[in-house]
Amino acid sequence: MGKVTEKLNVLNTFIPEHVTIVAVSKTKPNEAILDAYESGHRDFGENKVQEMLSKFEDLPKDIRWHMIGHLQRNKVKMIVPFVHLIHGVDSVRLLNEINKRAAQVERKVSCLLQVHIAEEDSKFGFDEAELDELLGPDFKEKYDCIHFCGLMGMATNTDDKEQIRKEFAGLKKLFDKYAPLFDEGDWTTLSMGMSGDFALAIEQGSNMVRIGSAIFGERNYH
Ligand SMILES: *Cc1c(COP(=O)(O)O)cnc(C)c1O
């Protein structure tokens, strides 16, 4: 058993079964991914299109690739044929582009709408008023190649647990607010929580956590 699998096994002892762990493999080599893959793990997250593409090409085809980063519109067409779930849909223009490219490959693409819940300005996402407008009367006809699966958010990078808890609770509230618009089994996924705050996120109702450094170790950027 490799080091990555050991870490995943430890996480699995206290992350409940209904919570999907997306192993965030950005910057990490294929061998690290295969370590987890061979123990049965299938959900991996990347935040750069080029990196996801080359890993997709090199690695087993039953891996479920999650695009977790900010996605540029001009790169949508490269991932639409195979991506499992796009977490960071943060604008109507991006959603339009995904819908258009999905139609071209005759695929319904699963998306999470990213919500701005953090204090920092730098984090992308919709606010509640924008979501109200987007999820208005005709959104299902308009986005006929989008499978709206739920919401994603990132809390403020702070040690203040109460603040993080409040931000996650706010996102869960929005998730519940829009649920009645969808058919049973459609609006299922609330993606919140990373290595530093996943326990708080799960406590507040997350059912998908995006964990990188706690599985693969610290990242080296150069
Ligand atoms: C990198 C990244 C993560 C994982 O971060 P860790 O702190 O390493 O767990 C989660 N979500 C997003 C959107 C990321 O870009």
Detailed description of the structure:
- The protein has helices at 3-14, 30-38, 49-58, 76-79, 92-104, 128-134, 139-142, 161-178, 198-203, 213-216; strands at residues 20-24, 43-46, 64-67, 85-89, 109-115, 146-153, 189-192, 208-211.
- With 222 residues, it is of the alpha/beta class.
- It has an eight-stranded parallel β-sheet with strand order 7-6-5-4-3-2-1-8.
- Helix 1 (3-14) crosses helix 2 (30-38).
- It is globular and about 50 Å long.
**Gyration radius over CA:** 17 Å
Q: Which percent range describes the beta-strand content? A: 15-25%
H/E element order: HEHEHEHEHEHHEHEHEH
Overall mean pLDDT: 96
Bound molecules: pyridoxal-5'-phosphate
The neighbouring-strand order within the major sheet is 7-6-5-4-3-2-1-8
- In DSSP terms (H or I, runs of 4 or more residues), the helix count works out at 10
Overall 3D geometry? globular
Flag low-confidence runs.
none
Count all strands and give the number: 8
Distance between the termini: 29 Å
Largest sheet: 8 strands, parallel
Helix share bin: 25-40%
Structural class: alpha/beta
